[in-house]
Amino acid sequence: MLTFCRALKEGDKVVAAVRNPSKIPDTLKRNDVVTLPFDLAWSQEKINSFAKDAFAAFGTLDVVVNNAGYAYMGAIEESADEQLKGMSIADYKSRSL
Question: Is 39 in contact with 21 (CB distance < 8 Å)?
Fold first, then answer.
């Protein structure tokens, strides 16, 4: 979020890729911010479509910041497969996009 706010302060435009666009605060709903839904669990085809939309928002992208990732805390034997899969996708797949 710090990078996002600094970019805006310096007059840059921002394309925010977020899991839930409805959680973006009203103060960040501005003409220089485009919010697009994104999920690392999407197929490569859908991710490619997202990338086209992101480029189309302002015509170019000068800087891309990857802020995806999270940690699931708990004993592995007590964890649901979907929880671990979600963490793995966010933490590993995001590095290869």
Answer: no
Contact yes or no for 54/61 (Cβ under 8 A): yes
In this prediction, residue 14 has a pLDDT band, given cuts at 50, 70 and 90, of very high
**Which amino acid belongs to residue 72?**
Y
Residues 68, 54: Cα–Cα separation, whole Å: 16
Measured CA angle at 83 (ends 82, 88), to 5 deg: 95
Read off the pLDDT of residues 56-97 as tens digits, 9 standing for 90 and up.
Answer: 999 988 888 777 666 677 787 887 887 777 777 766 665 555
The tokens of 5 are what? 């706010």
Q: Which two tokens stand for residue 23?
A: 């959680």
